[in-house]
Amino acid sequence: MEEAAPGDDGVAGPPSGPAAGCAGGCGNGRAAAEEPRRRPRPGAGDEEHGGAASRPYDLGRPVFHRADTGWSGARHIALTAARRLDAVRVPLGAEALGAALAQGLAALTDLPPFDSSAMDGWALAGPGPWRLTGQVLAGQEPGARLADRHAVRVATGAELPAGATAVLRNEHGAVELRPDGEWLRVAAPHPAPRPGQEVRRRGQECRAGEALLPAGVTVTPAVLGLAAASGYDDLAVVARPRVELLVLGDELLAEGQPGGGRVRDALGPMLPPWLRALGADVVAVRTLPDDAEALRAAISDAVATGGADLVVTTGGTASGPRDHVHGALARLGARLRVDGVTVRPGHPMLLAEFPCGPYGTPCPEDPEHSGGVEPTGGRPPRQHTDAYTDAYTHPDTEPGAGPDPDTAGPGPGTGTGTGGESASGTGFDLAGAGSGSGSGLPPRRSHFVGLPGNPLAAVAGVLTLVAPLLRTLGGHPAPASYSAPLTEDIGGHPTDTRLVPVVFDARAAARPLRHTGSAMLRGLAAADGMAVVPPGGAKAGEEVGVLDIGMPGAAVGNTW
Ligand SMILES: Nc1nc2c(c(=O)[nH]1)N[C@H]1C(S)=C(S)[C@@H](COP(=O)(O)OP(=O)(O)OC[C@H]3O[C@@H](n4cnc5c(N)ncnc54)[C@H](O)[C@@H]3O)O[C@H]1N2
Ligand code: MOO
């Protein structure tokens, strides 16, 4: 790797500019003079878009030529390389959590479903005093109509009897025992209840059939609760992309202390939860030796037998004697879509697609690629729902021509009807609408991302290639993108974008962290996000794009 100079933990790649020696952050940031605001901005990073420059590796032996893609262009290719997976119906619960709604959520019932009491107290009819005639608890039928000047004791949530005009809460009333029974009156100094007071009216939150949420919304715990409240037992969501992770490296230890040339595997523990947070179903994590045939067989197995929508490898992307990713992809007939990105760290990341899709299904639309991956059988197909409302327009399929991935995700639009079972009964919609070239959508197939082995470089690959790809597969719209002013200069690479871990200070300005070399995770572990630093660097006060790292920032970050 292009290692940072001793003492400089920040720059992977030739530094430039006055702050080059401080590129990873030199000491504490200084707050910007003016009140900075974190605000959405249309695109994070605006360097070359999809440009390619042929650049040989200088290993002393010509191995291959990468055609580096610009950082924004690479993200756009990843966003448009796949098409959204089909809809599946899943019970309300963990399976739905984090998936995108395949259909808008419309209320199946009025909410509240009936007039009910908002307080523990008495439901009453007309002006007081009121004769007490009984009680209704939550969950009980309300019983007979309430006559004028009568009241019943009610619990919060109890359905109000017909005729009730208001509820008097416990602490505002007093009950007197008279010869003819119990009587309720308002206790001074409280005023008499107004009509409708403390009553939750039927339908005041929504009416049956009313649209509550659009398709594409991520199912959060709150969405689960709303769906349950409004009558749902299950939800139609976009299937979670199945991801198989292959961690490569003879030198990796799964436990204990590193030494003797061996290091702990940092990516095996880090990436599966990261992938899950991005909406993936991580179906397998395997560690492999640096062996060409083992890698080829494992990838083939993941695609053909495992039914992975996406195979992610770590390590082996460069051109060392034990780097076999390119060779394995070539043997499997994979098509390289991105082979090197002008970003630091993460430069050797790559994106490819296989000639056939999950479950070993051949790709009839790609006869020239047939036979690459061994179709050795398959998992049971997903249960797809036929109740499918396609509320999305798929992003442009032409790489390099479309909008920024952060603002161009699937959004509301005219339906394209890509759901449904395939004719072959595999649950894999190759032949259906949307899978062929005539539909204008990319065909359904398995994808591949090769992440570099250096841990921070691997994270750069997740943010650049994996996140946009999973977003499209899982039907998630683009999250809001942000920019923030920098608290200090960040030195840049002369030609490449840099991704630098930052924390937001109290004014939401981005302070670059230290220990951000490509082999380091110390900066990232304290970070709120990754600043997108254009070639040449950025000055203190300058706004730069900030990539979300997918989960709430570490609490220590701002004081570190
Ligand atoms: N001659 C050149 N060599 C390298 C170049 C180059 O342009 N010319 N690029 C460098 C860059 S940039 C990167 S990034 C790395 C990418 O290397 P690989 O993807 O082939 O990864 P490995 O060689 O297998 O490992 C690199 C490094 O990362 C450590 N590693 C790998 N996996 C893990 C893991 N799971 N947990 C922790 N650490 C891991 C590994 O031990 C190595 O130190 O290539 C440069 N080389
Ligand atoms: O600069 Mo590499 O792409 O060490 O991560």
UniProtKB/TrEMBL annotation:
One of its GO terms (cellular component) is cytosol. Pathway: Cofactor biosynthesis; molybdopterin biosynthesis. Keywords: Magnesium, Metal-binding, Molybdenum, Molybdenum cofactor biosynthesis, Transferase. Gene3D superfamilies: MoaB/Mog-like domain (3.40.980.10), MoeA, C-terminal, domain IV (2.40.340.10), Molybdopterin biosynthesis moea protein, domain 2 (3.90.105.10), Molybdopterin biosynthesis moea protein, domain 3 (2.170.190.11). Pfam families: MoCF_biosynth, MoeA_C, MoeA_N. Residues 1-61, 362-446 are annotated as: Disordered. InterPro entries: MoaB/Mog-like_dom_sf (IPR036425), MoaB/Mog_dom (IPR001453), MoeA-like (IPR038987), MoeA_C_domain_IV (IPR005111), MoeA_C_domain_IV_sf (IPR036688), MoeA_linker/N (IPR005110), MoeA_linker/N_sf (IPR036135). It is an enzyme of class 2 (transferase). Residues 7-21, 398-409, 423-432 have a biased composition (Low complexity). Its cofactor is Mg(2+). GO terms for molecular function: metal ion binding; molybdopterin molybdotransferase activity. Residues 244-472 form the MoaB/Mog domain. Its EC number is 2.10.1.1. Residues 383-397 have a biased composition (Basic and acidic residues). It catalyses: adenylyl-molybdopterin + molybdate = Mo-molybdopterin + AMP + H(+). The keyword Lipoprotein does not apply. The keyword Transport does not apply. Residues 410-422 have a biased composition (Gly residues). One of its GO terms (biological process) is Mo-molybdopterin cofactor biosynthetic process. Catalyzes the insertion of molybdate into adenylated molybdopterin with the concomitant release of AMP. Belongs to the MoeA family. This is Molybdopterin molybdenumtransferase. It comes from Actinacidiphila reveromycinica.
